Each structure stands twice: as structure tokens, then as C-alpha cells.
Amino acid sequence: MSAPALKETASGISRRLLLCGASGAALMAHSAVAAAATAVAQNTWPQKPIRLVVPFAAGGGTDIVARMIGRTLSQQLGQPVVIDNKPGASTLIGTEMAARARPDGYTLLLAASTSYSVNPALRAARAYNPSRDLAPIAIVARVPLVLFAGGTAPWHSLSELVGAARTRPGQIRYATFGNASGSHLTGELFALAAGIRLQDIPYRGSSQAMVAVIGGEVDLGIDTVASVAPNARSGKVRALGIVGAARSGLLPGVRTLAEQGLPEASFDAWYGVAAPAHTPAPVLARLTRAMFDTLASPALQAQLRAQGIEPTMIGPAAFQQQVEREIPRYRALAHRAGIAVE
């Protein structure tokens, strides 16, 4: 090889080594920055109060769960957890607000399954996508729902109700909390499983629907066990079946719909906590650990159960799987039942 060629080869090798060195240095620098950011997020978060967005008005079941959990979570994290109620538009307002918040761990969402699976299944024009816009942290509680009739209704059992509905298709009316609400879906699940037709009547919320059932304005209602139990004990309403997977300690003598031959009528009502997508992984990991420790508190568990709420702890992966199972199920149900959302 000639001297000029040898010189050119050496020069090329030098240039390649220089480029490789620069690329390696850049890669090392990037890794160092990422590692430093992770360490900062892990070691310094949280440094200020955490906002827990609740897409319901104060005083409802979701708000009660948020305030109970928020107090204990605050102790775990060493910072105040501030409840921010943002009701409206079937939870879309508050849920979208949380999903669009800065992903720094200082804004979280505590919502019922309506926000995570029912709305995405039924509302094509929604402004958020739970899989894309939210990072699941934990399912923290389950709430048994109850199918009930007024205290003077002629049906004393589920089988009597089903028999009457088959002879009067579409004439037996049940109260919902609005079109495409959880109670609406639950009623349609029950009707499809039983092979009957019911007529849904929308009300503004739980209290109005309960008054309508007690007063005989409608025949049936579907609500949480905490709302139904006091009225059932006083005889104002008659509990016909638990819609969830297990019986409730507040109404231990009331069998589930599955126990009464309608396993396909089960509707799983639950509460979950999530963060905006792209929240740093160390922050999410810290939140998950803190949530596990929070739900392990015997005092908190007792407080939740006294409200007819069953504490649970389902982590991020299982949370995501639950949502992915429910969305197609509810979308298919809405199609079969003719539930349309504008």
C-alpha cells in the first residue's frame, strides 16, 4: 500500500473512531441524564400537595372513597392529598382534566369504572382514551350493586319479577341515573340475561331514583348496597338480588343474581386510581407501593366496609386488563340493547 493510501486509511479510521467516540459520549450522556432524572423523581417526589381529581360532586360514593383513601395516602406520602371535585358530562369533564394534566405525579384521578370502561365503550366522541391518556395505578375498591323494588311491589323474589316481566314485556320500568349510565347498563344486562324487556326511566341521580322507586313512580331501581340497605331494612324497598360477584355484608341474606341463575347479569362496579400518561415510572412505582400500604390499613378497611364498599388492591397490569375486557363487553351490550349516546 502506498504512503498516501496508508495515510488516507489511517485518517478514515481516525475519523470513524472520533465519530464513534462522539456517539458513545452522547449515548452515555443521554443515559446519565435519564438516570439522573429517574433518581430525582424517585428521591424527591413528592415535594408539594397532590391533587386527587374526582369526576363527581362532593358527597357521593366516589367522593367518599376518595376522601377516605386520600387521608391515609397523605400519611404514606408525607404530603397533603387535596380532593378536587369536577363533576359533569357523565364524568367526562373531570376525567379529561386529569388525563390532560402535567404528568409529574401531582395530579391523580380517582373514578368509578364508568370513567375507565363504560364511557370509552359507549361515547365515541369522548375527549380521552384510557389506554392512551391514563397510566393505571390501582383498583382500590369494589361496590356491590343491588336490584331492588319498592316495598309495596307485588314481587317478593327475582323469579316472580322475571315471570311478571315475561307476561308484560316492556311495561315494567326501572330507574337509571341517565342514558348509558352504569345503572342503565346493569338493567340491560339483567334484562338480556333473563330474556325479558324492561323500560328504563332516567333520573338525575341516586336520591331522585330512590324516591321514585319508594313512591311507586317506577317499579325497580339499581343502586349501591350502601344506598339500598337502610331502605331495605326499613321496608321501604325490597332487595331482589346483588348484581356483583359476591354477597354484601350489609345485606347478607340477599343472594347474587348469579346464585339465582343469572351469572351473565353480573356488573362489576369498582373504583380505580390513575395518573396522566407519561408520568415517570419511578413515581408510578412509588404511588403503587403507597397505595398498597394505604389499603392495608385495618382502620381504612373498616371505614370502607361500613359504607358497603369492599377494599381491594389490584395493580397496574391487572387494572389495564380489566379495562380491556370490559370495554368490548359494554360496547357489545349497548349495541344489543340499542343504547345510543349522542
Question: Short summary of the structure?
Answer:
The chain has 342 residues and is α/β, with parallel strands linked by helices. Helix content is 49%, strand content 18%.
Can you put this structure into words, describing what you see?
By secondary structure, the protein is an alpha/beta fold. It folds into two domains: 50-143 and 269-337, Bordetella uptake gene, domain 1 (D-Maltodextrin-Binding Protein, domain 2); 145-265, D-Maltodextrin-Binding Protein, domain 2. It is 49% helix and 18% strand. The protein has twelve helices and eleven strands. The protein has a six-stranded mixed sheet, sandwiched between helices. A three-stranded antiparallel sheet has the order 8-5-9, sandwiched between helices. α2 links the parallel β1 and β2 (81-85). The chain is globular and about 65 Å long.
Give the overall silhouette: globular
Number of domains: 2
Strand order of the largest sheet: 2-1-3-10-4-11
Task: Please identify the top-level CATH class of the largest domain.
Answer: Alpha Beta
Specify the structural class. alpha/beta
CATH architecture of the largest domain: 3-Layer(aba) Sandwich
Order of helices and strands: HEHEHEHHEEHEHEHEHEEHHEH
What is the terminal-to-terminal distance?
A: 79 Å
% residues in beta strands: 15-25%
Radius of gyration from CA coordinates: 26 Å
Portion of residues within helices? 40-55%
Enumerate how many helices there are, as a single number. 12
Ranges where pLDDT stays below 50 over 5 or more residues in a row are 1-41
CATH topology of the largest domain: D-Maltodextrin-Binding Protein, domain 2
Question: What's the average pLDDT?
Answer: 86
**What's the count of strands?**
11
Q: CATH H-level name of the largest domain... which superfamily?
A: Bordetella uptake gene, domain 1
How is the biggest beta sheet arranged? 6 strands, mixed
